[in-house]
Design brief:
Layout: H1 2-31, H2 38-49, E1 54-57, H3 64-74, E2 79-83, H4 90-94, E3 95-100, E4 105-110, E5 117-121, H5 128-131, H6 135-140, E6 142-145, E7 148-151, E8 157-162, H7 175-180, E9 183-185, H8 192-203, H9 207-210, H10 217-228, H11 234-249, E10 253-255, H12 259-275, H13 283-294, E11 299-300, H14 302-306, H15 311-321
Helix pairs in contact: 1-2, 1-3, 1-10, 2-12, 10-12, 11-12, 11-13, 12-13, 13-15
């Protein structure tokens, strides 16, 4: 029995080490295109391994779409890009049934959602009706058109970019849509050194075209399976629930995070642990992920808005107020 336990531990260590190594290769490849944003790139890879979806929100011109395209190219998966515009229709995303006069039958023509990585560029420039076409796809990994359900091939990830809601020509994302995004990140403006390096690399060529794939869909599927097996102690699970429950009771919020948010928080924490070559999740992982995973799901109360409070600030308050669990066994028995 002791030998069996040792073999299991050794196999788990090897599995996690492989995830960390592959994740490092993917991050390094993406960073050849997106300079000076290693934390954001790392989080994007973690969301991929957590079987989630990523919302990249920032002002125009900081590399949101480039990040999505670089990640897709690095893992050599099928990728489709959708430019969201006010006249985009739901059928443009999901697909449509077309009558074939030769066979006298309707044929389904897949939409842009049928890819491993779907890049939704400027998602909040389309109407809420069109945005809602993604709801079933993102949650259930399937598309239903004319009563027929079509499954989406794994791995499947939506990387959507959006401009801040204050920008002209934008629509706010519905709450149900925001809740389906595992995390939201902002790239921000690059540091001076990174921007100088960008001028050298992008000014004389196209780094995205030179980016060679460092993984494929089969390897990503194995990484995802390994991430699912990362150990989470009972106390850490309870801590995740306590963090999310606190958002539902905070006086500055009129809408807290959903149970789906708790699932996304734990899945992302498992992915981060694996990328850091750990077989277990720490409370620190949950604290680091709380803002990107929870903040975009929260709705501030009227008084909080008047006081110019922000959702990230509320999340920081919650992290400071919720007791951290005592150290427990880090590995499964």
């Amino acid at each position: 029995m002791a030998g069996s336990s040792t073999r299991k531990g050794s196999a788990a260590e090897t599995e996690v080490r492989a995830v960390a190594a592959a994740g490092g290769r993917i991050s390094t490849a993406v960073e050849t295109v997106i300079e000076g944003k290693s934390a954001q790139v790392r989080l994007a890879v973690a969301v991929l391994l957590a079987e989630g979806h990523l919302l990249v929100e920032d002002v125009p011109g900081v590399g949101k779409t480039m990040l999505a395209k670089a990640l897709a190219r690095a893992i050599n998966c099928s990728v489709r890009r959708v430019q969201f515009t006010p006249d985009l229709l739901p059928s443009d995303i999901t697909g449509v049934s077309v009558y074939n006069q030769n066979t006298r039958e309707f044929e389904f023509r897949p939409g842009a959602i049928f890819a491993n990585i779907v890049v939704g560029d400027e998602i909040n420039r389309a109407s809420p009706k069109t945005q809602s076409a993604l709801l079933e796809c993102m949650e259930e990994r399937q598309v239903t058109v004319d009563g027929v359900t079509y499954l989406l091939d794994p791995p499947f990830m939506v990387i959507a970019t959006q401009n801040p809601i204050e920008m002209e020509g934008t629509y706010p994302l519905p709450e149900a849509q925001r809740d389906r995004f595992t995390a939201r990140i902002a790239l921000g403006y690059p540091a001076v050194d990174a921007e100088l390096e960008m001028l050298d690399s992008h000014g004389g060529g196209a780094p995205l075209e030179d980016l060679e794939p460092v993984a494929d869909d089969l390897e990503v599927a194995k990484m995802i399976a390994a991430v699912r097996r990362i150990h989470v102690a009972d106390s850490v699970r309870r801590y995740a629930v306590d963090l999310v429950t606190a958002t539902r009771q905070h006086p500055d919020l009129r809408l807290g995070a959903s149970p789906r948010a708790t699932l996304h928080l734990l899945r992302a924490a498992r992915a981060v642990a694996a990328l850091e070559d750990r077989e277990y999740v720490l409370p620190d992982d949950l604290q680091a992920l709380a803002e990107p995973v929870l903040a975009h799901r929260l709705l501030l109360s009227a008084d909080a808005q008047i006081a110019r409070r922000s959702a990230p600030a509320v999340v920081a308050d919650i992290i400071a107020s919720v007791p951290v669990p005592a150290p427990a066994s880090r590995r499964p028995a």
